[in-house]
Amino acid sequence: MRHGWVLPLLLLGCAHSEAFGDPEPGSGGPRGGGPPVRLTYNIGQDGTAAWSDDGAFIYYSAQDSFSSDKDRCIVRMAAGGGSRIPLACPEPLSANGLTEIFDQPAPGAGRVAYASSELGVDEHAPFRHAIWLVADQPYAAPTLALAFPYFTPSGASHDAPIYLQWLSPDTLVFIGAENGCCRKDTMRFGEQIVLLDLSGPTPVRHFVPGTTRASAVQAAADGSAIHYTIAGDSRVYRRVLATGVVDTLHDFGPGRVARDPQLVGTRLYAIVDGHDGFTDLPPFYGVQIDYGGRLVRVDLPGGGETDIGDPLHLFKRPRVSPGGSGLVVEGYPMSSVELLDSTGTVVAVDTTVARWADLWLMEE
């Protein structure tokens, strides 16, 4: 572990370190002034954020913390924070014995793609995953784009999509993921990057070679390339789609695991260190269970690294605004307790990390 603090033991808590602000959806805005700014106040999970094409809005998945089902909706708010506008929510908006999650919004060209998952109350009931398209307006009727699971040419099963986003106006990119167990498990391990062509009457999947066990992906702004990381790997890769040429954007060095890359101009952002949980988990091998890490900026081409986070949070899923002036990220609060022996000597630091995140705006 680096940056002067240790994480020998991770315990998942179920509350944030700060009080919940606005219990009613859309009833308030951010608290505080200059960057970094906490954008959301929710005792549940807010995450999988994305920017509008013009950088004016942030889209994200918001959990209904006051429902016993803990459903999540796709919502939109102004980039600087403010009231949230629900766009797509599970139906009915009442306790129905299902945990229904709408997440990974991908706005573009007047519509939003998003992923859905649904878990039944029966232990053996499968998760049902899908990708949907909906007009960028409140409660428009969605259209099914792709249902899961399906099998790849290699024989692997893709049970769910992760890191869903637009590569071009007619093509989505995502990582086809395997659920940890029995398709009902919430743990998802990246299997391979997929391009989903929606230009014709029937969606067509293209599987990107050389991306087995991809842990995160970002589409280049012009759609010509993808930037991605591999589970357990310290490097951020770039693949030019037209030629298949792969090069390394940056290597964080031995013993470090990179994920969540975001490239804008000559600045590369990524999550490193923290608690990435790279392990073998039979029957799955080389999988990554990520509880967050440090938010690092790399200035290319020299490769100078700057930690732009803080030691009180672990971070996941940074997303850079189209112009590069804003960065929204999931922040998971931490609290630490020193463990002493009989002489009063510190022998370990017990760190608790919140299970759920809020969104923070980092501006350069």
Characterise this structure.
With 364 residues, the protein is mostly beta strands. It has one domain: TolB, C-terminal domain (Neuraminidase, 6 Propeller). 0% of the residues lie in helices and 53% in strands. It is built from no helices and 30 strands. The chain has strands at residues 9-13, 37-38, 46-51, 57-63, 72-78, 85-88, 99-108, 111-119, 128-135, 143-147, 150-151, 157-158, 160-168, 171-179, 188-197, 204-207, 214-219, 225-230, 235-240, 246-251, 259-264, 267-272, 278-281, 284-288, 294-299, 304-307, 313-320, 326-340, 346-354, 358-363. Strands 1, 2, 27, 28, 29 and 30 form a 6-stranded mixed sheet that branches. Strands 3-4-5-6 form a 4-stranded antiparallel sheet, with no helix packed on it. Strand 18 (225-230) and strand 19 (235-240) form a beta hairpin. The radius of gyration is 20 Å and the shape is globular. It starts with 8 loop residues before the first strand and ends with a strand. The model is unreliable at 1-33 (pLDDT under 50).
